[in-house]
Design a protein that fits this description.
Structural class: alpha/beta
Number of strands: 6
Strand content: 5-15%
CATH topology: Undecaprenyl pyrophosphate synthetase
Number of domains: 1
Helix content: 40-55%
Distance between the termini: 31 Å
CATH architecture: 3-Layer(aba) Sandwich
Order of helices and strands: EHHEHEHEHHEEHH
Bound molecules: farnesyl diphosphate
Shape: globular
Strand order of the largest sheet: 3-4-2-1-5-6
Radius of gyration: 19 Å
Oligomer: single chain
CATH superfamily: Decaprenyl diphosphate synthase-like
Mean pLDDT: 96
Length: about 250
Amino acid sequence: MTQHTDINKDTLPKHVAIIMDGNGRWAKKQSKIRIFGHKVGVKAVRDTVEGAAELGLEYLTLYAFSSENWNRPKKEIDALMELLVNTILDETKTLMDNNIRLQAIGNLEDLPEKCLQNLNSTIEKTANNSRMTLVLALSYSSKKEVAQAVKSIVKKVQEGELKSEDINEDTIQNHLFTHNIPDPELLIRTSGEQRISNFLLWQIAYSELYFTKILWPDFRRENLFEAITNYQKRERRFGKTSEQIEKENA
Ligand code: FPP
C-alpha cells in the first residue's frame, strides 16, 4: 500500500483533478440502488481530500456533476443534489479546521437554489483558507466553458475593450472558469473507463492521465498516493526530447 512517505515532496503535482466514476456500478454490485453508491462515494471524497491536504497538494478538483448528468432520472438528480447540500453543510467545519478553501466551477446558476446558497456560503466562509483549494466541478461542461469564454472575448472586442489581433492562448485561459487555478499536472479517472467526458479539455492539454479500475466508493488516499508515485516516474517532455529534459534537470 502506497504511503505519503513514499512520495517525493519536491516533485509533487500542484493540482490533481479526479473524474469520480463508478458509484452506480459499485451499488449494483451490492444489490443496492444507485444513490447508495453516491452516499458511500462521499466517504471516498472525504478521505481523498484529507489525503491530498496531508500530502501538500495546492489544488484538488473533483468532477461531482456534469452538465450531461442533468439527463439522469429525476429521482437520482434530486438525491444527488440533496447529498451535495448536506455534504457541503456537514463538511464546512472540517474545511475550516483544515484550512481548506472551497471553490466551484461550472454553470452554477443551474443548481437548485438551496444547493447554490449553501455552496456560496461555504465558498465565502473558506475564502481566506490557504492550505489547499478544493474545487468542485458542478453542472460543468468543458465545451460550454470554452464557448462562454469565446462569447465574452467577442463582447470585449465589440465594445472596444480588446483588439482581435491581441487574442492569444492567455486570453482564452483568462476567460475560463479556471482562470485563477493552475492547470492540473495529473488527471485521475476511476472505474476503469478511459475517457475524458467533457472535463477540463483546455486545461489538460499537458496533464498526465491515470486510469484505475477502482470504483469511486472504494477509492482512498492510498490510491491517490499510488497515482502520484506513478506520475512521478513519468518523464514530462512538453514536446521536447528526452536529452533536452535530462540536460535541464542536470
Ligand atoms: C459517477 O458515478 C459519480 C457521480 C456522477 C457523482 C459523484 C458524487 C459524489 C461522489 C457524491 C457527492 C460529492 C461531493 C463532492 C460532495 P456514476 O453514477 O456515473 O457511476 P456508474 O458509472 O457506475 O453508473
